[in-house]
Design brief:
283 residues; 3-stranded mixed β-sheet; 9 helices; binds arginine
Length: 283
């Protein structure tokens, strides 16, 4: 399915993408205001940019599930397992069967959260890229009760982080672990306890708290593959920081998707996630 050395990202073309309901603050005022051609062009640009460093697989788009373009929310992949999402909002629940079918057809063992606890996959569950740890955002979408269940199902340590700003309703809107154990995050999106956990677990020289302006441009919603970072927009300060850490930054305007509350990272789901950091980055 994939070359040994390149990452593989799952995407879903925006054929049926539109803002047709409101389930986060970004969508307010945007129902039926999208520009379909611009959305197609922006998505293609992201896909082409990713294809210069990684594999991209596309799942079939489907009518009636306009947010399925945000594949990060399909599930949480680790090794040969995926925990299927159980969407909080009924508007997205019909996506679950599509993701489940695709995952099963691609040799993943599909696991489910018990009692259909709300769980929004790699939107809220992000692997640290320096140590074997799964960061888990809750407070808006995913249920905090998923944390110990995920730890058992995937045999990995889980650190829960409470999200407190409704504009940053998924962890991947305000928190981005980068290869080598680096981290971009927007501090004000987290409660005091979560801020303390981040400070305690990520060495100060490896984390960077982005400005409100960068956060609102979805700079933390970045796709990382090796030393490449793909994002909607970054300030000169943030660009300089990423360059100091050795990353090449690719800015791709994703404004049409921001109307729905998502950008680069939400539009992808990383499929190759070996179980440990060591095996993940072994040559
Ligand atoms: N409209 C979608 C929602 O509110 C956007 C999802 C963005 N995805 C993400 N991983 N942050 O669910």
């Amino acid at each position: 399915m994939m070359s040994k050395h390149l990452d593989t990202f799952l995407m879903c073309a925006p054929e049926h993408f539109e803002v047709s309901y409101i389930i986060n603050p970004w969508m307010e005022g945007n129902v039926a205001h999208g520009d379909h051609l611009t959305a197609q062009g922006q998505w293609q640009e992201l896909k082409h940019a990713l294809q210069s460093v990684a594999h991209v697989e596309c799942m079939p788009a489907a009518a009636g599930v306009p947010d399925m373009v945000f594949t990060a929310n399909g599930g949480l992949v680790l090794g040969d397992k995926v925990i299927l999402s159980a969407f909080k909002h009924v508007e997205r629940q019909a996506e679950e069967a599509h993701f489940s079918t695709w995952f099963a057809a691609h040799d993943l063992q599909v696991l489910h959260m018990p009692h259909d606890l709300p769980f929004e996959g790699a939107g809220d569950a992000l692997l640290d890229r320096g140590v074997d740890l799964l960061w888990f955002g809750h407070g808006h979408r995913s249920d905090v009760a998923c944390a110990p269940l995920m730890a058992d199902m995937l045999d990995i340590e889980v650190q829960a982080l409470k999200l407190v700003d409704p504009r940053f309703y998924h962890l991947d809107t305000c928190f981005c672990p980068l290869q080598g154990g680096y981290l971009l995050y927007y501090e004000d999106a987290f409660d005091a306890a979560a801020q303390a956990w981040i400070a305690a677990r990520v060495p100060v020289q490896k984390r960077f708290a982005v400005s409100a302006e960068d956060a609102l441009n979805f700079a933390c919603n970045a796709v990382n593959s090796g030393k490449h970072v793909f994002l909607n927009h970054a300030s000169t300060v943030l660009l300089a920081q990423l360059q100091r850490w050795g990353f090449s930054v690719h800015q791709i305007a994703l404004t049409e998707f921001m109307r729905a509350g998502g950008a680069a990272k939400c539009l992808t789901l990383k499929m190759n996630e070996p179980h440990t950091v060591r095996s993940r980055y072994a040559a």
